[in-house]
Amino acid sequence: MSIRQWPRRFRQHFKHQPGMLAWLLYLPAKALLLLFSLLPYVVLRPLASNIGLLALLFERRRRVGCEQLACAFPEKSDHERKQILRASCKSIAMSAIEAMILTRRYHSRWEKHLLFADGARATLESYRGKGGIFVQAHFGSFEFAGASLGPLGLEPAFPMRLPNNYYMGRDLVANRKKGWGVEIINRKGAVRNLLSRLKDGKAVVIATDQSAHNNPIFVPWFGKLAATERATASLALKVGAPVITLWAVRHATKPIWTIDCKVVREATEVQAASDENVYNLCSEIHASLEEQIRLVPEQYLWIHDRYRIRPDSEKNND
Fold this sequence. Notes:
The protein is of the alpha/beta class. 50% of the residues lie in helices and 15% in strands. It is built from 13 helices and 9 strands. The longest helix is centred in the first third of the chain and has 29 residues, at 78-106.
C-alpha cells in the first residue's frame, strides 16, 4: 500500500465506528454546534448566509452553478443568474443550520414555525396509514419539509448516508426520532426496509435530484438529460404506492417555513418497473419539482453537478 493510500484506509477503518478517536473528533464539532445553538435566529440567519458564500471561492462550483442556471433560465441575463447563484449558496448554509440546529430548536412548537399552503395539510394527512412516497429536491428546507410529516402522523422514514463519525450519526438518528418521529434508515440496502414500510402504511421520503452513479436512467432535468436514480420510481411501480412531491419554502427573514405538496399520482395497480414506466414516472416527478424550483430558484442547490454523468449516446458522439 502506497503512502498516498494511508489517509483513505485510515478513514475507512474508523468509519461509523465508536471509540476514543471518533469521540475526540466529535467533541469540537459538538461544541461548535452548541455555541451556534445559543445564537438567536436574527443573528444565526445572516451569519450562516455569509458562510455559505464561501462556496463561490471554488471555481468548479461557480462554473457548475452558472452552467446549470443558464440551462434552466436561458431567458435571464448573466447578472440575474449570478444573483440567483449567490442567494443559492446562502440557502445551502441555511439548510445545514436547519438540519443541525433549528429542527432541534423548534420541534416542540412546530405549528408556530411550519405553515401549510392552502389544502396542503389536508392532502398530507389524507395519506396517514395509507403509505406514500414523498419526493423532495434539495430545495428550500429539505429537513423541515420531511420532518413535518412526523407530527402529522405519517410515520416518515428517510434513507440517507449517515455521517462518518459514529457519534454524529447517533445524535442525528436520535434527535430525528425523539423530536419529530422520523426514522433515519441507512441508505445502503434500504430498499427492502422501504418496501416493508410502504406495505405497513407508512411514509417514505426520498430525494431524487442528485446525480446517480449506479445504473441510472437519463431523464430531462431543466431541459437536459440527467442521470437519475431508478429506485424511487421502481419502488412506486412495484407496490402501486402514491407519489407526492414535497417542499418547504423558507421565509426571507423570519423562522417560518411554508410546506406544500403536489400529488404526482395516486395509488394504483402494481406495474412492471420497465425502463419506459420508470422513465415516464421520473419525468412526471421532475416536472413537478421543476415547477416549484422555478418559482423560488434562490433556494435550490445549483452548485451540485447534475449533468456530470452523460449517457453513452453522447459519449459515442464525442
